[in-house]
Amino acid sequence: MTALTRLDHNRARALLAIKAATPLDKVDGAIIWGNHSSTQYADVRHVTIDGKKALDVLPRDWLEGEFLTTVQKRGAAIIAARKLSSAASAAKAICDHFRDWVLGTGEKYVSMGVFATGKYGVEEGICYSMPVKCAAGEWTVVDLDCDDFSKGKMELTGKELSDELALAKSLLSSD
Predict the structure, then answer these.
(1) Rounded distance between C-alpha atoms, residue 24 and residue 10, angstroms
(2) pLDDT tens digits for 123-145?
(3) Are strands 48-49 and 138-141 parallel, antiparallel or unpaired?
(4) Is 142 exposed, middle or buried (0-12, 13-18, 19+ CB in 10 A)?
(5) Contact at 8 Å (CB) between 30 and 111?
(6) Distance, CA of 140 to CA of 132 (rounded, Å)
């Protein structure tokens, strides 16, 4: 079982490509960690833009500020501007998600909500977006190093998911 965070993943890549004035296919390694909410963390620590580290290509203050909040709030901004959802973008993300899951990602990884096993300090059993590689219809979480900035953002979105799970369980067990 998986959950879709590919829409956010695609949005992050697109924003990076626009800011770097480069084609989208030159942007690799974006990761959406955690929840599809305003606490999600669009991680650029492993992103390359035309073969160079994103942190060397784009301003760090933009990457750790405006970029993060834009990805986190992009869905709400589209709805506010259009008075409609971004249904075409969501449909494209669904197609991308299933294409990669079924046909594989090769050496690249993508963001996918999967049930955590404790990796990256995420509470076991929570559906949490992480970097995965896909092959033969199976996904595998990728091992990456995370710096303190990333760990803090990952903990924040993990706590939100843990709290949501606890609330759901309490509602199911109440009379």
Answers:
(1) 10
(2) 998 999 999 999 999 999 999 99
(3) unpaired
(4) middle
(5) yes
(6) 5
Q: What is the 8-class DSSP label of residue 118?
A: S
Is 164 domain-assigned?
A: yes
Could you give the CA distance from residue 60 to residue 65 in angstroms, rounded to a whole number?
8
pTM here is 0.89
Domain that holds residue 153: 6-173
Task: Give the residue carrying structure tokens 């969501």.
Answer: 90
Q: Which CATH number is 152's domain given?
A: 3.90.110.10
In sequence order, what DSSP letters do the residues of 16-84 get, joined into one string? HHHHHT--GGGEE--EEEB-SSTT-EEE-TT-EETTEEHHHHS-HHHHTTHHHHHHHHHHHHHHHHHSS
Active site residues: 36
